[in-house]
Amino acid sequence: MHHAAFDNDPKLIKFLLNELKFNINIINEEGNTPLHVAARYGRLDAVKGLLSRRANIDARNNVNNTPLHIAARYGQLDVVKELLDKKAKIYTGNKAGNAPLHVAARYGQLDVVKELLDKKVKINTENGIGSTPLHVAARYGQLDVVKELLTRRANIDDENKKGNTPLYVADINAKNNNNSTALHVAARYGHLNIVRELLDKKAKIYAKNTVGNTPLHVAARYGHLNIVREFLKRGAKTNAENKKSDTPLHVAARHDYLDVIKELLNKWAKINAKNSIGDTPLHVAARHGHLNIVRELLKRGANMYAENNDDLVPFELVNNAEVVNFFLDLKSDRVLQQQAE
């Protein structure tokens, strides 16, 4: 039976059950039924065949894992969906007390986590030691799962039976597939308390992700002024460059965050720094039509005649009428001023 499940052969399963009278829930030495095996290897046809013949959908093996635990562990999304459609129990704990959501979080099976949450599994469900899926994902450095759980408002302050919050158990400098650390993720979502606690625990403030962004770049990108201030207070490099040589000032200029621009300039951001294509923050703001940023940068002394790698000054990049008129008025005022002198 187990071999038939592994081979994904519903006809053989039917023959073994009908002709040879095999027990559909027969277990191997690990306590796994054929359904466990089919779930482990993603054998969807076998899963459907076994379930249609009333295999025990919630059978437990030697460590109390059900087929849903097994499918969650190995990221077998189609099997997870089938088991959920057939009303598999979603809160059953294994020997460690982990529900399938904990298991998916532990092993970084993001698609399974999403599916379980979409099926209204409680996001803050606790395991045997009171840990939530967020505790588990943080503990094992599964930052993509952490990000998803935070997006869906998982409780960041829940304490397990040891009195530990998810942050306390986190692998502080673990990285996800984009090389983002927990500090990048906290900066992305504006969690100031998490940022502070991570920094207190010696998280790397200069860590760069795949595109070379530091946590300060990320905070600037999403306009989280309080987090920008915290990073600067803690010694973040104001003029750190990513792989495109963008500084946080370039990033804030691109995304129109005036308060962040002001804060960075107050902390000695290089106002005329050039990125890999020679654009200064003023080029960037002009290119994107952000008039308030253009005004602030010029007020602070940005060079309106700086040329990028294509020998273009900021004015030549503008395609926004309001910004064009501002530059024209500015040039006119300067001409009149020179004539008066």
TrEMBL record:
Q: Which GO terms describe its biological process?
A: positive regulation of transcription by RNA polymerase II
Question: What PROSITE patterns is this protein classified in?
Answer: ANK_REP_REGION (PS50297), ANK_REPEAT (PS50088)
Q: Pfam families of this UniProt entry?
A: Ank, Ank_2, Ank_4
**Protein keywords:** ANK repeat, Repeat
Q: Name one GO molecular function term.
A: transcription cis-regulatory region binding
Describe where the ANK repeats fall, as residue ranges on this chain. Answer: 30-62, 63-95, 96-128, 129-161, 178-210, 211-243, 244-276, 277-309
Q: Where are the transmembrane segments?
A: none
Gene3D superfamilies, alphabetized: Ankyrin repeat-containing domain
Checking PANTHER family in the record gives: ADA2A-CONTAINING COMPLEX COMPONENT 3, ISOFORM D, ANKYRIN REPEAT PROTEIN
Q: What is this protein called?
A: Ankyrin repeat domain-containing protein
Which species is listed as the source? Answer: Wolbachia endosymbiont of Armadillidium arcangelii
